[in-house]
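S.,

Sequence below, as promised.
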Amino acid sequence: MDKIKITDLEVYYQVGVPDEERAKPQRLLISIELEHDFTSAASRDNLAETIDYFAVCQQVLTFGKDCHWQLIETLAVDIAAMVLEDFRPKSVAVEVKKFVIPQAAYVSVTVTRTAR
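The prediction came back faster than expected:
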């Protein structure tokens, strides 16, 4: 299967278990891998027959506006559901990286969802 990868898209969302952590947006990195058949798009060189990764990025950048989550697991699931619904890939994997433990480069979760 063909794939589009968006790696480490920088967003600022309100996420965290303690209220004080959710009080203001924090930096997260979001990576998204979309499975899609490129055969038709490539043979016709036609954006309309593939997934517009620019549009995916723009939607993810604004997805967290006026929202908050306690868990990055929930955030990853919500982004995957939005991408599946709005962009129709065969499957999507979403990784969310959070920078809250000083002794670690980051903590991340990854979820994978398949179209029904």
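The domain at 3-114 is CATH 3.30.1130.10 (GTP Cyclohydrolase I, domain 2).

Coffee later?
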